[in-house]
Amino acid sequence: MAVAEAEPAVAALRGRLDPSATLGVPAHLTVLYPFMPADLIDDSVTARLASLFAAHTPFRLQLTRSAWFGDVVLYLEPEDPDPFRRLTSSVEGAFPDYPPYQGRHTTVTPHLTIGDGSPTDELRAAESAVLPHLPITAEVEAVTLIEQDVPGGTWRPSAHFPLLG
Questions:
Q1: 3-state secondary structure of 148
Q2: Percent of residues, the chain, with pLDDT higher than 70
Q3: CATH topology of domain 4-162
Q4: In the chain, N or C: fewer CB atoms in 10 Å?
Q5: Among candidates 148, 58, 150, 28, which has minimal Cα distance to 158?
C-alpha cells in the first residue's frame, strides 16, 4: 500500500537507492509480492480482492525506526506490523498459489524499502538522513494493486481496494 506521507522523507533517497522507485513504485508497504501475472488478473480476481480487503478495518501506520535485511536492504518498519500481516495472510489464504516472496521466507516482515542493493556506505548515509523524519504517520484506508505489464517494465496502479471492516 502506498504511503504518500513518507514521500517527503524518502523519495529522493529511494530515487537513488531503490531500483523499483525508478520503475514507478511509490513509497509503500507490500501486502503480497509477487502476485499473479497481470494478464491473469480479471474481474473475478479484483472482485475477490475487493471483498477480502473490505473485511479489514482501516488502521494507523507509524513508521518508527530503520532496520536492515543483511547489509544490502535498508527499510523503515512499522511500530505495529500485525495489521499488515493480517492483510498478507488474507490474500495468501485466498490465493495460495502466490505465497509471499515465493515462499522464500518463513516470516513476512512488513517494511518500506529505502534502498536495495546500493553500496552499504550510501545506505548508511540514507539511514542517517531519514531518521530525523521519524515517526512517519499515515492512515491506512485502502490497498492499491500495482501491476507490471512486462518484466523490467514500469509499474502502474490498476485497482484500489478500500478497507471498510
A1: strand
A2: 100
A3: Cyclic Phosphodiesterase; Chain: A, (3.90.1140)
A4: C
A5: 148
pLDDT above 90 (res 94): yes
Q: Are 54 and 165 in contact (CB under 8 A)?
A: yes
Arithmetic mean of pLDDT, 125-132: 98
Contacts made by residues 154-158, CB under 8 angstroms, sequence distance 24+: 154/23, 154/24, 155/20, 155/23, 155/24, 155/25, 156/24, 158/38, 158/41
Report the 10 Å Cβ neighbour count for 9: 22
Whether pLDDT at 10 is above 90:
yes
pLDDT tens, position by position, 51-86:
999 999 999 999 999 999 999 999 999 999 999 999
**What is the SS3 assignment for 139?**
strand
What is the per-residue DSSP string for 51-104? HHHHTSPPEEEEEEEEEEETTTEEEEEES--HHHHHHHHHHHHH-TTS-GGGG-
End-to-end CA distance of the chain: 17
CB atoms closer than 10 angstroms to residue 94: 14
pTM greater than 0.90 (yes/no): yes
